Give the backbone structure.
Amino acid sequence: MADQTDMTLQCPIPITEHDQIQLAHGGGGRLTHQLIEKMIAPEFDNPMLNVRHDGAVVSFDRAKLAFSADSFVVQPLFFPGGNIGTLAVTGTVNDLAMCGARPLYMSAGFILEEGLPMQTLWQVIQSMQRVAKEAGVHIITGDTKVVDRGKGDGIFIHTSGIGIIEHPISINPLSIQAGDAIVLSGDIGRHGIAIMGVREGLTFEGAIETDCACLSGLVQALLDAHIEIHCLRDLTRGGLATALIEIAEAARAEISMNEAPIPIRENVRGACEILGLDPLYVANEGRFVAFVPEKHLVKTLEIMHAHPLGADAIEIGKVDTVGQAASQGMVTMKTQLGTSRVIDMLSGEQLPRIC
Amino acid sequence: MADQTDMTLQCPIPITEHDQIQLAHGGGGRLTHQLIEKMIAPEFDNPMLNVRHDGAVVSFDRAKLAFSADSFVVQPLFFPGGNIGTLAVTGTVNDLAMCGARPLYMSAGFILEEGLPMQTLWQVIQSMQRVAKEAGVHIITGDTKVVDRGKGDGIFIHTSGIGIIEHPISINPLSIQAGDAIVLSGDIGRHGIAIMGVREGLTFEGAIETDCACLSGLVQALLDAHIEIHCLRDLTRGGLATALIEIAEAARAEISMNEAPIPIRENVRGACEILGLDPLYVANEGRFVAFVPEKHLVKTLEIMHAHPLGADAIEIGKVDTVGQAASQGMVTMKTQLGTSRVIDMLSGEQLPRIC
């Protein structure tokens, strides 16, 4: 009676492997990747999706647009430096910025749990509008649903966004080239640690706040200066390591990076040690990597250093080869001890519900 | 430390009234309306949002686009004639169609509960792709999050969509005019009853399946015939009555309708009586009303009757006045007994989690 005509095709993730969704399927690591690459993306298969970027790029008449969508399930809803609302707007603004688009319009969908204090929702909505205004985007459509007590978790938010691409360059993993310099926009690890700190009841020397910030202004500054950007990626769920691996796998690229120059604040490093976390995999909400031709490296750093969100920008690696038929893509890191190791996606769950 | 700078402004829904979210805030009736009109829309305030339609319309260069978003929390996930996946794609396709747009691209965001059978997700994803393919839309971006067991309810889906508007007419509540005929595309009540039937363990004489269907083809047929459509609205959460009231309130219009011609199947009518539901307020997922000039009524009906989804289309009322300063908008219905009554939004919750 129900729509079960689809039962004929075998599930592409063998039941012997994972017959149920686990928290790690949402962690941004190997299991998330498997879910998307084995089940979701092959079924929805199309050229726009196949670029595997933070958003999709589509053309209408003469207008080239980026389109992106994100769900937010972070716990706790409020944390040092932000809340689920600031995160929801920033997340979609940043996904559009990573496509080289100027964010213009957004949707906001709310799934509210019965019993949520009205005042909490009101605070979140005001935060969303404040961030949207700062980023110059308008929230123009949306939806609100309510689920029974115990069937949700306060507030889940889904945002999607449309931005306009006003330049001819294609910014995505498939555009990276051998020899590209990889620039990291600043210190890493603050968002994840800010949240884990609250969850674990830790107090740090010097407050650790999320780095949550809209990156569209800084990206626009690079575009205005005609930097020939090949790829951008914000370092959210899964952190710097996962972002680089995803790009390497999409482009079948060999990437080498250095551990030494990566900026990590002392208290963040300390918290990571206490919590047993590798800062390379900890989520950020205001940091990104840019892949640019070596000849544009100096100018890229100059522009980033002049912007408050890129003051600590630094080159952390380069692209060695791209598109070698035999390669599945690989990231190797020269450690501070001088040894070299392959960086892989985490197979388990490092930080559940971080965004 | 958290983002609490916004605490200064008083919550626009007085705490004395509703200090917590209730299920009825998601039911599509008066409380949903209050939440949107008093809190969300004034805060996100902008001209596109203020049209109060199923989607927003924006222009890029020469391209005019519709942009819409929806969240889906239906329970059970599978029901006669469909599942949460078919609903999620249909819902956004229909919102775009109601803007007079040709749906082209969609996003899909999943919030999965830990422990969800992988096979269930796989079925839902296949259903989504099947409906998307039939409707000619591509799912080109998305997101997947997982929440702990007991913090979600199997699957929540959020979809957003972009469609292109290829004609010069403005289809929204503010375009309706005095004298417009109101055409209902077919029988009402099947979606809500299909779901309530499963929940309440009822069996009907003759299965009652959801009417869930993509309306973009039928709308396109009307546009191709140059019907001067003033407004379209699909009859989802809150049903026919709520759709008409929303339009009347947005346009400050006085609308009169007749109960007699409204098609309701015998078994749906019987189920409504057993369940104590008014079919006028029961959700549909494949039905809509069209506001067209009286002079185009005959042609409108002709085109709709030629389409499988409009075979039972019928005129159910007309617009008496529009934009009278003293009017807040009103819908009156001539009942089958010959009396006349004002139709109002439900203040409570008729059908929780119907979509």
User: Anything to note?
Assistant: Helices of chain B lie at 30-44, 84-98, 118-135, 190-200, 216-224, 239-251, 266-275, 297-305. The two ends of chain B are 38 Å apart (CA to CA). Chain B has two domains: 55-165, 173-343.
